[in-house]
């Protein structure tokens, strides 16, 4: 999608490098997942999953802990306590500032055009924020954000520009990939909170080796410049349908939970004998189960989607939606109940670790597939 510019300002396009179109290919970028502990001394610092990549830019610099965020679309590095961006031979000052907010967190600094590399993927003229200040206590520790959200969702984040091109748009504009499509495989966490293997982002298409069967493409709900919003068609607990009407939600790689629509959430809460609500841990509001309830007695949660040409059921067993007991201390949980990742809300990391997810920005589609 072409970026937009306020008429009174210079055109960003004059600074963009016009590249020779290359043969289309797929670019894979390794990513890792870790669980960051909460900090009771910091009110807005809750435990969170961090899916991160390594990014190269500036003066031959590498930031190895850059958060992958499908809910925003600006790229920035540095910050208050992190490695500062130093302009290099490919850096072009935009003579503008940037500022990005994420609820109770954010960053600000100076905007550049620079060569930005993620694994095999490079954009030669990418808008990047060089943060000289950040207030990121709710997301620490990491040293930047790779925004992979929908084009246009960074409106006003670079002064003087209504929007700026995303990393995916840059890959298309420079001929590295044919279309703005990418897929994400997020590895699950072990009971110790360590990533089980390496995940990846595939730019230019999807990684067929990661999926079983066909990918189901679900229409994105407009407006298309906000988030990757889609409909859940139904939710079941075991064989009981607990949500029968379509409900809008969105994916968020920076969210911990297995987020369910409110009706489905409360139906499960009311259905399971001895179920309760967590009111003290870093997963406040999540469903808990009695210690008298065995994990084998808890039924799978199945989330169903209606795609353009087919449907898909993602079944998540209790072994996947129960929090491993070894993580209770990290999440400030008590051991007098069984804790779960189930919260009302969005399709966060506990869901995304159970599927392969993909995003087609040109055709406004979100894809899911069962894992191989």
Structural features, described:
This is Polyporopepsin. Helices cover 7% and strands 40% of the residues. β13 and β14 form a beta hairpin. It starts with 26 loop residues before the first strand and ends with a strand. The protein folds into two domains: 158 residues, Cathepsin D, subunit A, domain 1, CATH 2.40.70.10; 160 residues, Acid Proteases (Cathepsin D, subunit A, domain 1, Beta Barrel). It contains four helices and 24 strands. The protein has a 13-stranded mixed sheet, covered by helices on one side. It has a four-stranded antiparallel sheet with strand order 14-13-19-20. A three-stranded antiparallel sheet has the order 17-18-21, with no helix packed on it. With 372 residues, it is mainly beta.
Short description:
Residues 1-23 form the signal peptide. This protein is mainly beta.
Q: What's the layout of helices and strands?
A:
Layout: E1 27-36, E2 48-57, E3 61-69, E4 75-78, E5 92-102, E6 105-118, E7 121-135, E8 144-147, H1 167-173, E9 181-185, E10 199-203, E11 211-219, E12 229-232, E13 234-237, E14 240-243, E15 247-250, E16 258-260, H2 262-271, E17 276-277, E18 287-289, E19 301-306, E20 311-316, H3 318-321, E21 338-339, E22 342-344, H4 349-352, E23 356-360, E24 365-371
Parallel strand pairs: 3-8, 4-7, 16-22
Antiparallel strand pairs: 1-2, 1-10, 2-3, 4-8, 5-6, 6-7, 9-10, 9-23, 11-24, 12-15, 13-14, 13-19, 17-18, 18-21, 19-20, 23-24
């Amino acid at each position: 999608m072409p970026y937009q510019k306020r008429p009174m300002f210079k055109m960003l396009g004059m600074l963009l490098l016009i590249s020779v179109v290359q043969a289309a290919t797929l670019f894979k970028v390794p990513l890792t997942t870790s669980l960051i502990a909460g900090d009771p001394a910091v009110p807005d610092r809750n435990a969170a999953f961090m899916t991160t990549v390594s990014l190269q830019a500036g003066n031959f610099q590498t930031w190895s802990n850059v958060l992958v965020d499908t809910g925003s679309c600006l790229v920035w590095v540095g910050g208050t306590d992190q490695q500062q961006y130093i302009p290099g031979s490919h850096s072009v000052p935009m003579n503008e500032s940037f500022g990005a907010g994420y609820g109770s967190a954010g960053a600000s600094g100076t905007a550049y055009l620079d060569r930005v590399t993620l694994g095999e993927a490079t954009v030669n003229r990418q808008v990047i924020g060089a943060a000289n200040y950040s207030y990121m206590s709710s997301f620490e520790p990491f040293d930047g954000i790779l925004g992979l959200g929908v084009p246009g969702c960074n409106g006003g984040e670079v002064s003087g520009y209504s929007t700026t091109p995303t990393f995916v748009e840059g890959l298309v504009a420079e001929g590295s990939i044919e279309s703005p499509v990418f897929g994400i495989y997020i590895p699950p966490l072990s009971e110790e909170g360590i990533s089980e293997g390496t995940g990846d982002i595939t730019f230019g298409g999807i990684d067929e080796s990661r999926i079983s069967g066909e990918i189901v493409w679900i229409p994105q709900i407009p407006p298309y410049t906000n988030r990757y919003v889609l409909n859940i068609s139904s939710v079941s607990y075991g064989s009981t349908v607990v949500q029968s009407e379509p409900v809008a939600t969105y994916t968020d790689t920076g969210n911990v939970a297995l987020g369910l629509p409110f009706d489905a959430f409360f139906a499960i809460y009311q259905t399971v004998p001895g179920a309760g609500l967590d009111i003290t841990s870093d997963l406040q509001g999540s469903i808990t189960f009695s210690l008298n309830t065995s994990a084998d007695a808890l039924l799978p949660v199945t989330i169903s989607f209606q795609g353009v040409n087919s449907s898909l059921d993602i079944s998540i067993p209790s072994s996947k939606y129960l929090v491993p007991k070894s993580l209770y201390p990290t999440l400030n949980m008590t051991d007098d109940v069984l804790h779960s990742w189930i919260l009302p809300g969005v399709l966060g990391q506990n869901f995304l670790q159970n599927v392969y997810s993909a995003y087609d920005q040109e055709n406004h589609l979100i894809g899911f597939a069962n894992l191989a």
